[in-house]
Structure formats: C-alpha cells, structure tokens
UniProtKB/TrEMBL annotation:
SMART domains listed in its UniProt record: UBA (SM00165), ZnF_UBP (SM00290)
Domain named USP: residues: 336-852
GO MF term set: cysteine-type deubiquitinase activity; zinc ion binding
EC number: 3.4.19.12
Protein name (record): Ubiquitin carboxyl-terminal hydrolase
Family stated for the protein in its record: Belongs to the peptidase C19 family.
GO BP: autophagy; protein deubiquitination; proteolysis
Catalytic activity: Thiol-dependent hydrolysis of ester, thioester, amide, peptide and isopeptide bonds formed by the C-terminal Gly of ubiquitin (a 76-residue protein attached to proteins as an intracellular targeting signal)
Location of the protein in the cell: Cytoplasm
Gene name for this UniProt entry: USP13
Organism of origin: Equus caballus (Horse)
Amino acid sequence: MQRRGALFGMPGGSGSRKMAAGDIGELLVPHMPTIRVPRSGDRVYKSECAFSYDSPNSEGGLYVCMNTFLAFGREHVERHFRKTGQSVYMHLKRHVREKVRGASGGALPKRRNSKIFLDLDTDDDLNSDDYEYEDEAKLVIFPDHYEIALPNIEELPALVTIACDAVLSSKSPYRKQDPDTWENELPVSKYANNLTQLDNGVRIPPSGWKCARCDLRENLWLNLTDGSVLCGKWFFDSSGGNGHALEHYRDMGYPLAVKLGTITPDGADVYSFQEEEPVLDPHLAKHLAHFGIDMLHMHGTENGLRDNDIKPRVSEWEVIQETGTKLKPMYGPGYTGLKNLGNSCYLSSVMQAIFSIPEFQRAYVGNLPRIFDYSPLDPTQDFNTQMTKLGHGLLSGQYSKPPVKSELIEQVMKEEHKPQQNGISPRMFKAFVSKSHPEFSSNRQQDAQEFFLHLVNLVERNRIGSENPSDVFRFLVEERIQCCQTRKVRYTERVDYLMQLPVAMEAATNKDELIAYELTRREAEANRRPLPEVVRAKIPFSACLQAFSEPENVDDFWSSALQAKSAGVKTSRFASFPEYLVVQIKKFTFGLDWVPKKFDVSIDMPDLLDINHLRARGLQPGEEELPDISPPIVIPDDSKASDIDESSVMQLAEMGFPLEACRKAVYFTGNMGAEVAFNWIIVHMEEPDFAEPLTMPGYGGAASAGASVFGATGLDNQPPEEIVAIITSMGFHRNQAIQALRATNNNLERALDWIFSHPEFEEDSDFVIEMENNANANIISEAKPEGPRVKDGSGMYELFAFISHMGTSTMSGHYVCHIKKEGRWVIYNDHKVCASERPPKDLGYMYFYRRIPS
C-alpha cells in the first residue's frame, strides 16, 4: 500500500468542498452499489478519453468512471452519465508549472517529487529541469458535481477507499503490448530442445509457397518436423486458410510450426499444436537451417554493414525524410501528427492519407455527434467510435497548436504553464484495430499495404448504414484467361482496392552507372573504405505500367475445353475505375538465400496519371469462350455430406451473396474453404437456381433445417416474439427490434449492438414497417443480389499523397507520408508535421491518386 500512503499524505485540492465525515458517507450511500474495485481482468483507463485525446494534462483533466473504469474528458463525461446513469467519477489532473528559479537564475536543486502519483502513458519528462508536475485526484458525483477531495482515508467508506487506491495503482491497459513484456509473455515450447526433424531432403524456397492440400497462398505454416507447408485457420478479418496445418498435426503428431513470411533476424511466429498456444523456439535458427533457411546470414545482411564509417553518403533515409533541409513546422486543422508507439509508423502513415480524403472525413468526423451518441457502452471497443475519435483528433487542430513563448505564458497564465500538445498518441485505436490479428497486434514493423487492406476490411464490416467510405477505393478487375492449346477464353471479374505495379528492373535507363557503382561498392566493402554515393536504378513509370498489362502464366490451369490441365495465360484490365486509385510499387521480394530484399529504385511517378487505355473491353469478335464446365469435384462421403463448414458459409454471406448459394458453394467444393467456394459462386451466380435451397441426397431434412438455423430469409423469418419483447422492454421500437434480429440471425446480443451501430433505422421507421408488412421483399433481395458497389468514371487521376518506406524489408525500417494540402506538399513523419521542400515522389511505396472530373 505504498502508493496509497503517498497519495493520502497529500493535502486536499484547493477547489474541494470541506465536509464532515458523516456528510461524505451520506452523500455516497446511494451510489455505493455502483462503485467497483477493479478486478484482474478489468482495463482501467487513466491516460486517455474514450472519445477524444484529452488526458490528465488537459485543461479539464480526465474523469474515470468508478464502475466501468472508462475515462472521459470534460466535454464527454456528461454523455456517459446520461447514457449509463453512473454518477461517481474520479477526476485526475496533472498540473505543470515552471520551476522556481534560484537567485542566480538557475532552477533550484532537484528533490524527490512526492506530488506525482499517477502512472500515466504520457511523454512527460518528470525529471525536467524547467517544469515541475503535481498530480491531483478527487471524486466527483454527478449530476450536481459534488467534489470529494482525495485524500479522505478517514472519512471515506472502506470500499470507496479500496476502489480509489486500486484505480490509482492500476497499470496501463496497453502495458502488455510493450515490446519487452510482449516477448516475455510467450513460453518456451517444451518440444523445442528435442524436436525431431526428418531427413527427407525438403528445402523451402524463399517465395512461391502454397498449401500442399488446397493451394492457398496466405497464412501458411511450415511444420518444423517434416517441412510440410500447410494453411492455418480463418481469422476474423477474412484472411487465413482451411486449417490443414492443424489437420496435419492431428494425423502425424508433429508439434511445432513456424509462419512463413514472419521470419526475421530476431525470430518468427512459432505455434505449438500440442500446447495450443504461440511459443518461443530458442533453437529456431537451427530448425530452419534444416530446411535451407539461414537466419544467421539474414541477420548480417539485413542489418547491413555495422561500421558507421562505411555507410553510403546519401541514403534513402536522408532523402525521404528530407534531412539537411530546414523544414517549417505546420500547425492547425489537418496538420496533427501521430506519435510513434514503437514501430507504429505504418499505421500512422496510412491513417494520415485516409483522413485526407473527404469521403472519410464526412463519414466519421461529419457524423461525430450521431456516432458518439449511439456508441456502445464500451466505446473503446467500437470501430466507428475510434475511427471518428482519430479523425477528429487529426482534423480539428485541437492537438496541433503553435508553441507560445514562455514570456507570454507568464503574462496570460501567470504561475501555471500550459504546454501545447504536439501530436496525438493512437494507443487506443491501434489496440482495437489490431485486436486478434497475429501481425498487427505485435510490436514489430508491418507492411503499410497490408494494413491498408486490413483497414478497408474493417470499414466494410462496420459501415454505418448504407454509407461506406471505402467505396471510393473499390474497383472491378476483368481477368481474361486463355487456354494456350485451344485459344479459347474465359472472362471473369473480381473486386480489388489497389493496383500493384511490378518494378521493371530490366528497363532501367542508367544500366552503365549501376554496373560501375556495384563494382566500386564491392571494392569499397572489401577494402573497408567509405562506400560511394548511392546510384539507384532509374525506372520509367511507363515500363512498370507496361509490365502490369502484360500476360502472365497461370499455374495449374484447368482447361474446360480439354477437360484437363493445360498451359494458360492471364491478362488483367480495369472493368471500372475507382474514385481514388491506390498504387503499390512491388519493391519487396526474397532472394534465393531467403534474405529479404528491396529494390532501391527511383521511378518517375507522374503527377497526372491516365490509365484509360487499361479499360476492359470484354469478349471480342472472333473470340470463343471456354465451356462453362467446372473442374471435377470430389464429393464428400455420405457420412460427411451434412457437415458443411458454416464458418466458410458465413464468410461468403457477409460478402452479400444469398445464404443458400453460399451453402451450395461450400458443399460442392468439398469444404475446401471460402476462397475455393467463392470461385464456385463466380462461375455459377448466373444460373437460375443459384439462390435456391441446397438439396443433398439423403439429407434433405438436414439441409432445410440448416437453412432455418442460419437465417434463411422468407415468409417464415419472423423473429421469436419473446426476444422481440426483451428488446422493446429496453426502450427500443418494435420495428428496430425486428430489423436488428433479422440482420443478426435472431441473436440477442448481436442485435443490441446492431441497433446502436445503425441509428439511422430509428429515423427510417417507415422503411422498417414496410419491410415487416412485405416479407416477400426479403425473398426478392435474396434472389437478386446486388453486385459490389463501384464508383466508375474516367481513368484520369491526380497524385495527392504517397507513403515511403526506408529500410531493407517491410519487417523493419520506417514509414513517412507526404500529402498535398492547400497547393503544397506536407511531410508527416510521426508526430512531426512540416512543409515539404523536396518531396521524394520517385521513392514512394504507395501512391494515392484522386480522379480528375471529366
């Protein structure tokens, strides 16, 4: 109880009421049932408001609910009180004052500061020579704002004293994400020391992996006993696989596997099937070397030469961050930086670009009052709330104010110094969007392109009613596949959100310079001399665009004309052009020695981009289509005929396809996963019985029962009246309850969340009534699914933002974002926001273009 002793030895706050012990006890009696002592699993927020970036350092301090332990700034605490009825809050305030100067003008000698007792996630320099800090805590009772200054150890009821002490001494809810503790949470596998590895001659290539059982190419795991490469399970964000790695363990008993794509000099993601958790393998380098993966060599190469005196004179780090130029800081709305949480620059760069787009500004910040008012009881776990909070933090200018001279502060603020906040810390946002994701939840560096797609997926899944700002990125790709033997073709369409451009190294315009530089560099390394100035390959953008449009070979192509595998080529074109085009330069690859490599190239990216010539044209005169015949499918045994993988069904249903079509797709592809079933849907979606119920031989009853359980819509899809009554008893309209239950397959908990996240349906009650009175509308919408929404238009674009990467691979290095605002380029380098003098547009990794109206 040391902390409480320090706390309750403090004098009372200057603004506190003086009350007798009996008065305080009487004041708290009505609220005692709502005051809780934090338990081990409770998250106690003391550093950041759930709706804003207010903290104890803010002018109004921070209010911590003594029941939910959520924190709120002065602007938002009333909303929480009205919504929940919770009345007792702990008010936390950290005062910052300039230190008293001695006679000679210097600060007085340091002494132990006993006035600091809050354990906060802030950047305060508590040992500063210029400022001193003092923490203040008090209880506030709403709605009358009665204040009880702390300490009051002799006057407060024992329960309240214990609860206050527990809140004040609680650790940060993000502490477990800090790099040191994150690593220490993983146990060493008991199988690592004596792991059996088969001498079967298996060697793993550095790229081109696919699952040995289903040909999937994502979420792949290498079994460390026999070298099998198999897919993992599906994740919440629709990435993953079909669980073949786990099936292999059950068949063979080989316990450890490492995730391909996560191997770095510092380790990799290792999972123990026997122990059913992620683990550490202290002999990982040895185990990987058994299959031809040399981690130790990777360490030396990835870190580069360690001597400072042989580094290149001009590196991409200096060019991209515009080192050596005097950059003018920018302040105000839209010029707020994001503090680096330790390898979080990939997130910061993407979010700066995202919230420079008007559609995202309107969808979240423009709807701030409605989103905040209808947020769930725990807004820290709501995507739309946290997106709105981040957007407002970046765009309001509230957290990006120019510094004020200390003399002016002394005149205006007298004794108290109010330092301006420089940027915001996206801890709460990162914790939520990375939750349950195996990569983004770690503290390692990540790929900005992968995070962009992850974010788009979250926006899609959490869209507010019919409004979906990610529509601006969505476009259709027409894929033309031609059988090389019969010359027949097939046209299909798929959805995409970014354009991936290959780096056409063979088209470099300065090959002679590159050869000379490489010879000089090797000679300098051998003789331990300073390296020459870097010479980058200069690649014409037109060559990259040409490489994108060229045909590529199709692996394992099955020709329906030949009823057999054959050689095939594929070309891709735009079936629609998005409103905002995101272009990724494919700079990263693996060498034959498994060393991550990056093409250090300069590409003359255009400010104005015209891709109208890449518009798809469809089936051309003289072309003959491949027969519409599916590859032979292995039908499941009768014993497993009714065992449909419902997780794959729901994955497909969430994409907007009819439920019964999804069930048929999963069944007729032998439960091989959502990706394979999706391909079946694309081929069969024009068939007249596409959305009709699945009829399985000998299992017709089971099929119809399953359709009922998983929410087949129709005349009989009336939610159970008892569940409707429960929701209406909470004060919601009957129409809202019915619509929410229909949208969530009659799940009460999900229906309540649906109501809070779809406030527009309360306003649009006429539509709900019409839907209730006309159940056939559901059948119509099921039978005729809408295709993906796209905002097609001209293929003329203008560059307005780009993200650059510095380092040898996406698993290391640093990201910086440049955005064109008000006619000039601005560099966003974590919390620093400055006017750009020399934007390195030729060294970017991701480029953001907006359509030019025709």
